[in-house]
Amino acid sequence: MHRRFHSLLAQASGYSEFVLAVNLDIRGFSDWSRRVESSQTILYLTKVYRKLIETYFPEGWFFKPTGDGLLLVRPFVEAELAGLVEETVNNCFAIVDVFEALCESDPMINYEVPKDVGIGLAQGAASRLAALDESGQDLTLDYSGRVLNLASRLMELARPRGVVIDSGFGAGLLPETITDRLDEKVGYIRGVSPDDSLRIFFDPAITHIDPSFERRPADVVWHNVQRTWTLREMEKYGMVHVFALSSKLFDPKVHKCWVIYRTANDRKHDNLITRFEVAGEYVEEAGRPCVEVDVPEVAKLVAKDGVKSTWDVTVRVDYPVE
Question: Among 99, 150, 279, 299, which is disulfide-ready with 117 (CB 3.0 to 4.6 Å)?
Fold first, then answer.
């Protein structure tokens, strides 16, 4: 595979195409993958990816795994657009509605699986990298461009689950079966639209759009507070740790809790670290804003990753302030 790809790259050319871009992310995947065996993780991904592609993106789609999700790209011509948008939007919402049950009939998947998925959907021009194989068949090697980045950023907004759609589709292209459940917001996305606003569609019944979306990225200031323990100290801690914040959050849901430690399987390279997000609950104690993190539960996740008892583990809370 490596040699063939290398050979195709040597003769590859770039083309501009109009595409639909779908970025799909399995929510809570990192946390879930630490609670099951690695063989179960791989089995689940192979099953769920096949199910998604075969059922919802069967023809004409370019796809590649992103670790805990899929990037899917579909080129189109103008005459296809209306029908393709209707089918894709309906399929994306169907995926969200049935995601937890996608593999329930598979006898090999007899363990807990992730429940939610977030999807970003955008339309626009992209660059296609392609080459002819030995038989003269045109093979797509990759896609790049703003529209793919936009789909990725919209996917990040789709929390805890749901579909976030770029208004570039125009409300007139969206299927009537979906428009009744949609709301819209105007805001900004770092790296895509930091200064110029864009409009998005989403279902407010299942998707909570971070209020920071409505603020220019330059206007949002992030603070953080952290504490470092050895793994042994974390295991003995035996309680929730309360991180005191410098100010109240304009939205209690807008904060991130990170666990950071040296990469366990590469002790020769101390500069390599592992970082993953964990749950943290925003509370106010005597009027003071705080975030609570379950330290014993974090210790279990870290220990499962092979971290030694004497190694340092940092828990950090990032939060925006007015």
Answer: 99
